[in-house]
Amino acid sequence: MNIFEQYESEVRGYCRTFPAVFSSAKGAWMTDTGGQRYLDFFAGAGVLNYGHNPERIKQPLIRYLLGDGITHTLDMYSEAKQRFIQRFNDVVLKPRGLDYKYQFPGPTGTNAVEAALKLARKVTGRQTIVNFTNAFHGMTLGALSVTGNGFKRAGAGVPLHHTSAVPFEGYLGDDVDTLEYLEAMLIDNGSGMDIPAAVILETVQAEGGVNVASNEWLRRLREVTEKHGILLIIDDIQVGCGRTGAFFSFEDAGIKPDIVTLSKSLSGYGLPLALVLFKPELDVWAPGEHNGTFRGHCPAFVTATAALDFWQDDSFEKDVRRKEKIVRKHLQEMVDELGVTASVRGRGLIWGVEFEDREIAGKISAACFERSLIIETAGIDDQVLKLLPSLTIEDEDLQKGLDIISESAAAVMNKEVAETE
């Protein structure tokens, strides 16, 4: 028994799938204590959009620390925070015509979701939040209440109230208009649904199985929420910061949410940092009404500011969209060659392959790990093979990883065939 198994809680998860002890990482590669290198198609579940230890982000952090830059300020003013706010305004918000106030909650994504839900309820005076099937928004109680996964919800240990789950696009099949369903529920006094404070959604449900909302569906949802005076919260924690190509995942749809939550790759370096953006008229907080010890981590502000250098022009976004075409083509050809029933879906550099045989994705992930590729699964039954490489991955490494997936999938399918004969 190793020290982790002896002392760490049974709650540990990813280490069971990828049982290596890692010691260093650079770019798209991780290295364990035995010197074995692994190609990373996981990217910290979307935390490492810019890869491991990117120099253009690491060096400013090192200079800041060596200069005794302040590391902790609660929500007091700091030079690091000042620079981040100014840079984020100049590089991200203003060019996109967005005008938002900033709230730095606790350091994780679920903290941002909790703050967004509280704010929506405070602004509107209503209690209900509408969420979508297969959504995942975090592991604290408020975030769990708007999460679809029954296993995660059960871990709360208490009833999760004041939410209404409705079908995401495609959940009931292509022939059912889920937004017609939602609006009917809002209009009909017999539906049992009170007018909610907000609707919260991920434009791409990452943990839920890489379920992609179409731009048309998102535009219609925005129209429905505006028509009924409902706030729209976009959870861009995993699929923001360039994961879908544009900085925000909702940009391609041309919509402007009332509230946006960010975390994961916001710091650009794996340091905890979360942010809630909201329209100025929604800023009804009283001083200290929502707080936290680590609401604004100065070293993370430094790295987040440096990460914005990737977004000074549109070249980075264009490169992600170029790589998107490579991934889409490869995965579709792989499925066709395997002759299996599976669907390929995604945007930018988040992609999923859902297999009709719900055990295949997990077996392929395990086979990939044997071949030194780290790739996870998603979906309620882990039936989706989920690709999440860093956005900065070199073409050679991207192709190498895709080839390993194809090789692993073929090996799994051949074994499946052999076992049935």
From TrEMBL:
SUPFAM superfamilies: PLP-dependent transferases (SSF53383)
Designated name of the protein: Diaminobutyrate--2-oxoglutarate transaminase
Xref: PANTHER family: DIAMINOBUTYRATE--2-OXOGLUTARATE AMINOTRANSFERASE, DIAMINOBUTYRATE--2-OXOGLUTARATE TRANSAMINASE
Cofactor(s) required for function per UniProt: pyridoxal 5'-phosphate
Protein family according to the UniProt entry: Belongs to the class-III pyridoxal-phosphate-dependent aminotransferase family.
Keywords: Aminotransferase, Pyridoxal phosphate, Transferase
Coiled coil segments of this chain: none
Domain of life: Bacteria
UniProt-listed GO biological process terms: ectoine biosynthetic process
EC code(s) of this entry: 2.6.1.76
One family name in Pfam for this protein: Aminotran_3
PROSITE patterns (alphabetical): AA_TRANSFER_CLASS_3
Functional pathway: Amine and polyamine biosynthesis; ectoine biosynthesis; L-ectoine from L-aspartate 4-semialdehyde: step 1/3
UniProt GO MF annotations: diaminobutyrate-2-oxoglutarate transaminase activity; diaminobutyrate-pyruvate transaminase activity; pyridoxal phosphate binding
InterPro entries: Aminotrans_3, Aminotrans_3_PPA_site, Dat, Ectoine_EctB, PyrdxlP-dep_Trfase, PyrdxlP-dep_Trfase_major, PyrdxlP-dep_Trfase_small
